[in-house]
Amino acid sequence: MAISKKKRRSIEYQGMRFLWWVKDDFDGNGNMLSVHMASEDKKFIVEHFLVKLNPAESYLTIVGHYFPGLDKMTGNSIRIVCPDFRSAMVDNVVTPKTIRSILEWCFQLDKEIVLCDR
């Protein structure tokens, strides 16, 4: 089953099409405003909170079964430490530039993957 395109935007990166959307979300730790990105085949699905109480504790949640540089063997989501992507926002708005910055980091092959302990 494909991902619904309703209220979703698309972006092409490295020859692949991704859908992305922003939600007012709360994770129980004071974090809100999450951005979700998914490849059309749903293998790559990630979520990142752009607005958070402590920007130093930035993490990305991997939901899909594929993430570059990581052998994901479980069906559970995994949280990894990531940079703070708020600098890629324009006037505190998520734009395609923001999404491209996150995708560039995700697909960077030489990044260090550190699991969050949350």
The helix/strand class is mainly beta
Low-confidence stretches: none
Report the sheet with the most strands, covering strand number, pairing sense and barrel closure.
Answer: 6 strands, antiparallel
State the strand order across the main sheet. 1-2-3-4-5-6
SS element count, helices: 1
Average pLDDT across residues? 84
Number of strands: 6
Proportion of residues in helical segments: under 10%
Coarse morphology: globular
Using only CA atoms, what is the Rg?
A: 13 Å
In percent, how much strand structure appears in the residues?
A: 25-35%
Order of helices and strands: EEEEEEH
> Kindly, what is the distance between the CA atoms of the first and last residues, rounded to a whole number of angstroms?
31 Å
* Total discrete domains: 1
Give a written overview of the molecule:
The protein is mainly β and 118 residues long. The protein has one domain. 9% of the residues lie in helices and 33% in strands. It has one helix at residues 96-106; strands at 9-13, 16-26, 32-39, 45-51, 59-62, 78-81. It has a 6-stranded antiparallel sheet with strand order 1-2-3-4-5-6, covered by helices on one side. The termini are far apart. The relative contact order is 0.18. The model has no long low-confidence stretch (mean pLDDT 84).
Write a concise synopsis of the structure shown.
The chain is built from 1 helix and 6 strands; from the N terminus they run ββββββα. With 118 residues, the protein is mainly beta.
